[in-house]
Design goal:
three-stranded antiparallel β-sheet; alpha+beta; TopoI_DNA-bd_euk_N_sf; globular; DNA-binding; DNA topoisomerase type I (single strand cut, ATP-independent) activity; DNA binding; TopoI_C_dom; nucleus
DNA sequence: CGCTACACTTAGAAGTTTTTAA
DNA sequence: TTAAAAACTTCTAAGTGTAGCG
């Protein structure tokens, strides 16, 4: 029924103009679009000279439920006001999710929901447990089912509408380039879903209005028009920043931005720079390592703590660990914010000396669990840092990220804690590729090696994922496929054997040909079997590990490009279309002898 | 310094589309 | 032709790090 709701009438205000269709530039400029890396760079601080865009796409307005969809309170039908109903639908849509069973989620939701109610509603609805959203929930399930069952034509129509929206709002002109915008749609209202044990889960994320929006573009550009009857909060022309649109979100009070796609010049250049900084670290990392080993002996506690923390950041690729406001976010830590309760010291464990057992929640509340043998000096220092402390006390009480980064800045220009993660990730990939690639392997086996190298990095960086729900089942399916293939191979071999015997007796052309074709069949099946087995290994090893994050954010793409060129692997086997767009600069510049 | 505001990168989950194979 | 699985895209939360202020 209401399939094509995206981008409601709000964005169909009059006075539309085509962006980027005819920027009034001579031909060659469109060619420059995909090779910004050959252009001159801007001086420090200036991000652009010209910026023109059409502003954001707002969330579609709320459409009240049909009359026959009921909400029940205390067993009785209750008609809700539009505002209260909208918020109720947010909860109803999440009814199957574990979130809605959590005490904090329910409490936060109910508190914010009540704020949207009329005074009568408020006095009637006093307990969330008496609310029955099941009918609403069923309605939404039916809706999504109906969406799946839509005819080809209807689906096509929606697709076209999305394409139109993308064409119109999804691009901007920055200097001489037409660039893709990453997130041109404003986040719709809904219930806040934090990660892990977030104290604000379930709170109402309010609807963003044009009056909340700050537009950033150049003075001499066509300023985007707000929807009819509305005004922007502000229009500014700040070319020291890269964002096009910003607004303040109501849960944490933080600022959200609309920025460009990773394929854009402004993102790509920065990404390139990041890897260049990491390569500079490569040149001085030995010196830095010697330095912090010396500092373990310092008579200043502050220096010792700094040196041990840096050792963890370097060896274990831990994040810096900024302080966070208590009670505002989930309780997670990084290196500098580790507490005594997050590590256990084992003078001896499983035959190893001086083992540190880490157990803490990091970014996104992903658990970091690791047992690491460390040098005696580190171990002794940790014992010292933990003396006379409570479990909830800071391990590095004389240290924070600001102190650490200031020190790093002195060791190398542009050096911060996160550069170690980038450096160690990239150097590990390069090393592992060297070690694991077997020149005699075929392409699928080489790709398996690549994935294994990638996996080593993901493990280092602790990039985890929830095992796919269907993992066990799909693994079994694959195994039975392998078994079937094995039988097929045995059959093919038998046939080959008898064909050979036959040819020996008959000695004619026809039977020789038959032997040849049977040989080929055996070979083909062997290859297929091998491919399946490789696939099974790869998948099993990947069960709980996410490769994407490191590939996208930590691995110098030139290493991968060089590896592909060296071994004749098509780049498409390693990077999909989006990734190739993001790394276009690296694909263009890296030769097979590139060294990180 | 220590604080906050701001800008920008990094992150896994959820949703959607494409591919595979029965 | 269908359904399951895989691949890919979108979404937006959650980090890092710097600048500017008192």
């Amino acid at each position: 029924m209401k399939g094509a709701r995206r981008g409601g009438e709000w964005n169909q205000w009059p006075g539309h103009w085509e962006l980027g269709e005819d920027p009034g530039l001579p031909g060659p400029f469109s060619l420059q679009m995909n090779c910004w890396w050959e252009e001159e760079r801007y001086p420090e601080g200036i991000k652009w000279k010209f910026l023109e865009h059409k502003g954001p796409v707002f969330a579609p307005p709320y459409e009240p439920l049909p009359e026959n969809v009921k909400f029940y309170y205390d067993g009785k039908v209750m008609k809700l006001s539009t505002k209260a109903e909208e918020v109720a639908t947010f909860f109803a849509k999440m009814l199957d999710h574990e979130y809605t069973t959590k005490e904090i989620f329910r409490k936060n939701f109910f508190k914010d929901w009540r704020k949207e109610m009329t005074s009568e509603e408020k006095s009637t609805i006093t307990s969330l447990s008496k609310c029955d959203f099941t009918h609403m929930s069923q309605y939404f399930k039916a809706q999504s089912e109906a969406r799946k069952q839509m005819s080809k034509e209807e689906k096509q129509k929606i697709k076209e509408e999305n394409e139109r929206l993308l064409k119109e709002y999804g691009y901007c002109v920055m200097d001489n380039h037409k660039e893709r915008i990453a997130n041109f749609k404003i986040e719709p209202p809904g219930l806040f879903r934090g990660r892990g044990n977030h104290p604000k889960m379930g709170m109402l994320k309010r609807r963003i209005m044009p009056e909340d929006i700050i537009i950033n573009c150049s003075k001499d550009s066509k300023i985007p028009a707000p929807p009819p009857g509305h005004k922007w909060k502000e229009v500014r022309h700040d070319n020291k920043v890269t964002w096009l649109v910003s607004w303040t979100e109501n849960i944490q009070g933080s600022i959200k931005y609309i920025m460009l796609n990773p394929s854009s010049r402004i993102k790509g250049e920065k990404d390139w720079q990041k890897y260049e900084t990491a390569r500079r670290l490569k040149k001085c990392v030995d010196k830095i390592r010697n330095q912090y080993r010396e500092d373990w002996k310092s008579k200043e506690m502050k220096v010792r703590q700094r040196a041990v923390a840096l050792y963890f950041i370097d060896k274990l690729a831990l994040r810096a660990g900024n302080e966070k406001e208590e009670g505002e976010t989930a309780d997670t830590v990084g290196c500098c914010s580790l507490r005594v309760e997050h590590i256990k010291l084992h003078p001896e464990l499983d035959g190893q000396e001086y083992v540190v057992e880490f157990d803490f929640l990091g970014k996104d509340s992903i658990r970091y669990y690791n047992k690491v043998p460390v040098e005696k000096r580190v171990f002794k220092n940790l014992q010292l840092f933990m003396e006379n402390k409570q479990p909830e006390d800071d391990l590095f009480d004389r240290l924070n990220t600001s102190i650490l980064n200031k020190h790093l800045q002195d060791l190398m220009e542009g050096l911060t804690a996160k550069v170690f993660r980038t450096y160690n990730a990239s150097i590990t990939l390069q090393q592992q590729l060297k070690e694991l690639t077997n020149p005699d392997d075929n392409i699928p086996a080489k790709i398996l090696s690549y994935n294994r190298a990638n996996r080593a990095v993901a493990i280092l960086c602790n990039h985890q994922r929830a095992p796919p729900k269907t993992f066990e089942k799909s693994m079994m399916n694959l195994q039975s496929k392998i078994d079937a293939k094995k039988e097929q191979l045995a059959d093919a071999r038998r046939e080959l054997k008898s064909a050979k015997a036959d040819a020996k007796v008959r000695r004619d052309e026809k039977s020789k040909k038959s032997v040849e074709s049977k040989k080929k069949a055996v070979q083909r099946i062997e290859e297929q079997l091998m491919k399946l087995e490789v696939q099974a290994t790869d998948r099993e090893e990947n069960k709980q590990i996410a490769l994407g994050t490191s590939k996208l954010n930590y691995l110098d793409p030139r290493i991968s490009v060089a590896w592909c060129k060296k071994w004749g692997i098509p780049i498409e086997k390693i990077y999909n279309k989006t990734q190739r767009e993001k790394f276009a600069w690296a694909i263009d510049m890296a030769e097979e002898d590139y060294e990180f």
